[in-house]
Amino acid sequence: MPKRTDLQTILIIGSGPIVIGQGCEFDYSGVQACKALRRQGYRIVLVNSNPATIMTDPEFADATYIEPLTPDILERIIEQERPDALLPTVGGQTALNLALALHERGTLDAHQIELIGASLPSIRLAEDRQLFKDAMTEIGLKSPASEVVQSIEDAVRVAGRLGYPVLVRPSFTLGGSGGGVAYTEAELREIAERGLKLSPIGQILVDLSLIGWKEYELEVMRDARGNFVVVCSIENLDPMGVHTGDSITVAPAQTLTDKEAQRLRDMAKAVLDRVGLATGGANVQFAINPADGEVYVIEMNPRVSRSSALASKATGFPIAKIAALLAIGFSLDEIPNDITRITPASFEPSLDYVVVKIPRWNFEKFAGVDRVLGPQMKAVGEVMAIGRTFPEALQKGIRALDIGVDGFGSKLGEAPPEALRVPTAQRLFQVASALASGTPLAEVAQHTGFDPWFVRQMGDIIARQERLLRDRPALDQLSAEDFRELKRWGFSDAHLAGLLGVDEMRVRARRRALGVTPVYYRVDTCAAEFEAHTPYLYSTYEEDDEAAPTAQRKVVILGGGPNRIGQGIEFDYCCVHACFALKELGYETIMVNCNPETVSTDYDTADRLYFEPLTAEDVLNILDAERPDGVLVQFGGQTPLNIAHALAAASAPIWGTSVEMIDLAEDRERFHQLMVELDIPQPPGATALSRDEALAAAADIGYPVLVRPSYVLGGRGMALAFDAEMLADWLDAQITWDGRPVLIDRFLDDAFEVDVDALADGRQVVIGGIMQHIEEAGIHSGDSACVLPPYKISMYHLEIIREYTQRIGRALNVKGLFNVQYAIQDEVVYVLEVNPRASRTVPFVSKATGRPLARYAAQIAAGRTLAEIGFTEEPRVDGFFVKEAVLPFQKFPGVDARLGPEMRSTGEVMGHASNFGHAFAKAEMAASTHLPLEGTVFISVNDFDKGAVLKIARDLHRLGFRLLATAGTARWLGTVGLPAEVVNKVSEGSPHVLDMLRAGQIGLIINTPRGGQAHQDGARIRSAAHLYGVPIITTLSAAAAAVQGIKALKHKPLRVRSLQAHHGV
Amino acid sequence: MQQGCLALEDGRIFTGVGFGAQGVQTGELVFNTSMTGYQEILTDPSYHRQIVTMTTAHVGNTGINPQDVESDRVWVAGFVVRALSPVVSSWRSRRDLDGYLREQGVIGLSEVATRALVRHIRSRGVMRAAIAHGEAASDPAALVELARSAPDMSGWNLVNDVTCAEPYHWTERSDPQWYRRHRYDPAGPLVVAYDFGIKRNILRLLTDRGLRVTVVPAQTPAAEVLAMNPAGVFLSNGPGDPAAVTYAIDNVKALLGRVPIFGICLGHQLLGLALGGRTEKMRFGHRGGNQPVKNLLTGVVEISSHNHGFAVTPDSDLGGAEITHINLNDQTVEGLRHEALGAFSVQYHPEASPGPHDSLYLFDEFVARVKQTQLAASRPGADRP
């Protein structure tokens, strides 16, 4: 069928901020959809609140709205843009839910907007667990015995009937938020309460638990003609009971016979028929009893998803792009396969390699979190690895995680075999340990529920490792044959170096001397049946290299690896922009990355894609094969910088700011020396190499101090210590003294923080943007809201900041981007840190200023000057742009939901408007913090903040809010004549503040904890606020901003404006 | 670890680790891109005299079970894989692949650079090869010579090797856990199935649909078949060059117009030849479970199972038959229909096994034609069609 000509404008809804369960895979799918539909000549209107995405770059749509994803705002955009159709299937559950809401309020009908790519009944059927279950029964498929309930008592009754353990899943939540496995009635009551609260329709499903069954997923597509293909089969290593986002998964499925595989295919097709998915992509999850093959259908998602992004990368079949084309009327056989060019998309990819996906967790950032994996997703990112065999792919995946583990078995997680029953982030390493210590394969398989097939392959890896440890051969005793064998089993040079007790680079040298180097094979969708025209490559140790490097001028761009807190989509944005810029300059672009969720790993982004771990070994091998003119290490965050030395030592042509200068900025002493020379103040600080040194230094500097290990991103391990005792505790808990220093700085109380992103070309320094943090110093910059332009900083201080930035950029001879953090305290501007690389705020500044800073940086790296680029002046910012962080506390019950120097946000949103109040209100709204316009505000602040809270309380009172406070604060407010009602602390007994929260009687909470004084009540209030979705503000500066936001909202309604309209393009 | 070697007639050598039986064997070297179903492939008589390379990385993972066989023995001349599974995991498995091939006297080769091999065949076409496991593997030059001395597939009638010796009745139905249930009729219309190397799943699917099936040897004269008074004749899949099976072409000619005919694979090629068309050898054929075949009558694409090295030439004179299916990858003729003569056929494998079940409707179509004919025949005064 030809494409539809009756549609002109198509609205695409993005997925909003990166949260656990909804990551940057939707940037990838959204970008694909926008590109594909625009190429077909449609006008695209895009809405997404996340400024860090590539999809929200103005060139990917005709009208790009970085606005809150709420039905109200969307309605306004629809009124403005008059789309003919809405494509809701590439923006995750967020977009589907919004489509439903827009339908329910009549917006779609009123504006005659057609839903394409999905139908309302199919969205409802797939998401409403009871409807879905009934539908499955109707077509003769089994799904776990279960019942939908709307109360705790009913949940208990159902569990009694099904028998424990039961699985509890709330309806309509992301990533299984609020779900859990209950082994007892007490556990059930707790999980059910949380689940009922989290489900937007107050409904949970109590399931018979299939814990221990094998779990599979099929990624499928269908078109309007009824053509149906399975793009990929995925087998979970972790059995049922662990969310698929937290499971290690393998593609293609390895332990099914053809009969069984085809049965799943038939079932998936029947499910799609019944759900009524007309066109597009979907996934269907199955559980199979390993003892007799009995199959249960677990769920179906009628949209692209995290696993469809994975399947696209795993097979070379671009599901989101094709789903978009199907939605506008094409059929699968009318769409060519990009990779073979001669064959159509109506086929099923055949894989002649194995793909392993491993999740990346960040539990270390959340003290008190339950680290056991279950039905609620907890991972913040993932890596994918491609190998010719499962062992090779598994080992590559482990080293790609960038957690300092070189391979399976290189890190052992000692644990008694019974502990293997419990799924955790450490289980893979515990399995390695158990196998190394001789635990029988069968026992490991039984405890873990891993299929014996996988366990045996793991055992074979360990056997090779143990042989090396036993024989202890000298490096030069290893023959080419030995090396080849080990490489084919996936052993990295670093892992072998560890086993042989030599330096990694010696292993590399020996291996190369023996001629053992990898070949690169193409991911071609067809197991080599047809020629692959797309250089999408992975390494292996076999015959016949397919890389076919060209003789063109070329640049290698190193990506950021797996997403994690502190290093996320922003860096992928920068890498992708670097790639675009260099393409424009006529370079062949070569991307290296291992994160399947990203745009950078779309084979359509760079000219050539190496889907490889970002280790020195893997990157050097690529450089050997490609011989590029330049290598960019400054765009992918800390991961590529960590190997920059090794690359430079191997004479890699690193472009841009030199590794030497990057080092200088990280080296406390040398950097301090430089700041002294430049006459730029720094907070008093010191480095320490031992516990005693640290305590002495802190005493010298004066408390409170900020402490952190060197070479980290995202404030990993960073803490605020108010006295020697706190510092000592932190050092003992966090630091192993291994020769790397701990950095100690004076903490600047009550300071304003400022972030500057700037560009330099070795001659000139130009500021891209100056952002003022809304939270005061002490909150990690990644977790702090910030505003561009600064709204409370004097021109005088801004001039000082500009001048310092100039000095620093020149002194470090920066060639590209750099980011400087400043703090202003008592009229003094201090420099806190300098990062001569792309920063987290680059996409935000680029969106606000309309100037693509990352592109400029890449051009500078390639030798162009700022003058040639035409970027010679700090851009003027029209209106206010507020960036707000999005935190994952809702996923981690029991974690104290307070901000601190350690970054814990997973994503960000942007709000913009002509005044600060509206911009802030929009940012909060986009972060799902809906500022109330009336009602009750609960105020509870530490003594330190009591003075400053008065103005905020007064403003709220004047705005008509009822003030509620604990006795101490209420008395204090009363002294200035502010009427505050008193509510009990939790410790004072019911009815206390938590009761009121639960009863929905509080609309806003202002609660400021401080250092060691934070008491139990505060933590419980914060955790309850997140549970019940009540906005909570934990700093006074943010509270003041919120008051401005509320004022603005009460004064004038919000307006929406596209970036194109804003920047006049 | 026993050494193994695969020597191609053009001199290229692939080394590997032998498994299964020891010795030397020659055959036409082909590759199959199915990710599952090695057991069905091994036992498919159409692979007679062919050394099959699996493109999927790990083979043998689910072992060998008694049900998933397409005949009573392994037919491939040799089996080449990248990684033989060291372990078996399946609730249905009874033994491992290595032991099975050893017992069946078939040579296997693992740790082979199969992707390089596939690309070699893709660019140069299928070719003869010699596979060796054990002593013989140490002399690659001799193996190359041996490969060159092997017979060429073109013009080779292999049907005689694989067909049954005597006619027999087939009554086994498919396992209901794999397929939708059909109404079974032990007294349904009789269909005679020519065995040119027939796969059991074809017989099961015919039986499932209420047909009584009698399987006859390939050489059975048409007159003998007509004497059995069948309501339909089925022409099976099989190995070798269809043009070399001249007696079968003659028999099909004699049957055309007398009884509804349904052909699969070799049966399809024989039908094409009997209608007056030509067949040709393909460069490297289609072998896999992911081929897009477009049904030109409905416009729907079927993801289908393929195993053929020959194809009906599209521009040959097909005696008025229409082309009903084509392969979207390379436009190969995948289906024919001659309405007036009551015959239709497909080049690919609607019986799957291994492969997707998208094309099962063809069996229903055959049953419908058979029943229609029977109905017409039972009408008073009606002639045979």
Q: Major sheet of chain B: order of its strands?
A: 10-12-11-13-14-19-18-17-15-16
**What is the gyration radius of chain B calculated from CA atoms?**
21 Å
**Total number of strands of chain A:** 38
**Shape, per Cα inertia axes of chain B:** globular
Q: What is the residue-averaged pLDDT of chain A?
A: 93
What class, by secondary structure content of chain B? Answer: alpha/beta
Total number of helices of chain B: 10
What is the element layout, followed by pairings?
The complex is a heterodimer of chains A (1065) and B (385).
Chain A (H helix, E strand, L loop, with lengths): L8 E5 L11 H15 L3 E5 L15 E3 L5 H11 L3 E3 L4 H13 L2 H4 L3 E2 L4 H8 L1 H10 L7 E4 L2 H11 L3 E5 L9 E3 L2 H14 L5 E5 L5 E9 L5 E9 L12 E3 L6 H18 L4 E9 L6 E7 L4 H10 L3 H9 L26 E7 L20 E7 L2 H11 L26 H10 L4 H8 L3 H20 L8 H9 L4 H8 L3 H10 L5 E4 L13 E5 L13 E5 L10 H16 L3 E6 L14 E4 L4 H11 L3 E3 L5 H5 L1 H6 L9 H8 L1 H11 L6 E4 L2 H11 L3 E5 L9 E3 L2 H11 L7 E5 L5 E10 L3 E9 L12 E3 L6 H17 L3 E11 L2 E8 L6 H8 L3 H9 L4 H4 L10 E7 L20 E7 L2 H11 L9 E6 L4 H13 L3 E4 L1 H9 L4 E3 L10 H6 L5 E5 L7 H13 L3 E2 L2 H16 L7 H5 L2
Parallel strand pairs in A: 1-2, 1-4, 2-3, 4-5, 18-21, 19-20, 19-22, 20-21, 34-35, 34-37, 35-36, 37-38
Antiparallel strand pairs in A: 6-9, 7-8, 7-9, 10-11, 10-13, 11-12, 12-15, 13-14, 15-16, 17-18, 23-26, 24-25, 24-26, 27-28, 27-30, 28-29, 29-32, 30-31, 32-33
Chain B lengths: L1 E7 L4 E8 L2 E10 L5 H5 L7 E5 L3 E2 L18 E3 L2 E2 L12 H8 L2 E4 L3 H11 L2 E7 L6 H10 L9 H4 L5 E3 L19 E6 L4 H9 L3 E6 L4 H6 L4 E4 L10 H10 L5 E4 L1 H9 L4 E17 L5 E12 L9 E6 L5 E6 L4 E4 L14 H18 L7
Helix pairs in contact in B: 8-9
Question: What does it look like?
Answer:
The complex is a heterodimer of chains A (1065) and B (385). Helix content of chain A is 37%, strand content 19%. Chain A is α/β, with parallel strands linked by helices and 1065 residues long. In chain A, α25 packs antiparallel against α26 (724-734) and α32 packs parallel to α36. The two termini of chain A are 35 Å apart. With 385 residues, chain B is an alpha/beta fold. Chain B is built from ten helices and 19 strands. Chain B has a ten-stranded mixed beta sheet with strand order 10-12-11-13-14-19-18-17-15-16, with helices on both faces. Chain B is globular, with a radius of gyration of 21 Å. The model of chain B has no long low-confidence stretch (mean pLDDT 95). At the A-B interface, β11, α9 and α15 of A face α3 and β15 of B.
